[in-house]
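Folding Problem: From Residues to Backbone Shape
Fields: amino acid sequence; protein backbone structure tokens
RECORD BEGINS BELOW THIS LINE
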Amino acid sequence: MSPAMDAAEVRRRTRELLAAHPPATTGRTDFLKARFDAGLAWVHYPVGLGGLDAPRSLQQVADAELAAADAPDNDPRRIGIGLGMAAPTILGFGTDEQKRRFLRPLWVGEEVWCQLFSEPGAGSDLAALATRAVRDGTGDWIVDGQKVWTSSAHLARWAILIARTDPDLPKHRGISYFICDMTDPGVEVRPLRQITGEAEFNEVFLTGVRIPDSHRLGPVGEGWKVAQTTLMNERVSIGGSRVPREGGMIGPVAKTWRERPELRTPDTLQRLLALWVEAEVARLTGERLRQQLVAGQPGPEGSGMKLAFARLNQEISGLEVELLGDEGLLYSDWTMVRPELVDFTGRDAGYRYLRSKGNSIEGGTSEVLLNIVAERVLGLPAEPRNDKDVAWKDLSR
């Protein structure tokens, strides 16, 4: 990090960017590319890769200047998997060529990413995955298998993929990590219609998909280690995103309480107060977690945040439906669509209630995250397992 890189210097560079590329007269994509090249995309990344080698905390300095100038953002909700999962993994394990090739179009939003991890038989026990990657005579990898619950697969240009490369090793040690081209003719994406009526998720079938070895992240057989970086960042991005007070799910129900006094009861008041306090505690804990990230990579604490996020969303949305009474049973639209993003607060109470049921599954089930918190945060004894040293091919499935 440059000793001269402080808030004043970041502010100066941001103003230089705005002067050279006025948001009012510069196309959105051109402005975002210029911002990346100026090192103001994610200031804690290396110079030349959208950053300034600056402390992560200085990002808010640049963001404030850009917001005041009404500069466009990169629509982070649409490209959240790329920003929150693919980018930190590529930065941590990618080659210089991979970083140069993928990070800029990822951040600008020109290329959407998805995550090919979960499988029908390997959801909570992700390391039991069966998708195979076999090297052919050219050095490329040929991938066959099925993935499921894949957000944005219908929009994605690239995917982060883990596949089994050595079935003779125990399940955690025979996995490798790849970047998969979603336009390969062997990739088939099918919609999965959810309880909301939408197909936000997908199942992905991989048949003879060819992946060059240059698109492997990390050494062969060490994909589980690489995947841990992805998963830790995923949980922070889901459970620890920055929100204002009364942001997120607590906002709509608090608004309804204030504006609809005829719906109030003593019981719902007590429950709302308790959930409001818990939501505020979670928000402040998330702020502390982001401050800890300044000093290094996310740890298992992110799993605790994601746990709280899922539980709070489900309890708050349940209270909102109950508070609304008969109105809470209405559902605005069951049309089958394949959305580009999830919008909790911009929809009705019925949608929030139904969609929040998935919060305890996506990004790691609450049961798995409880184990992570118990073992890695609280230091409790690990859960007994008899499959750690057994070759994957010998496991019963």
Observations:
- The chain has a mean pLDDT of 91.
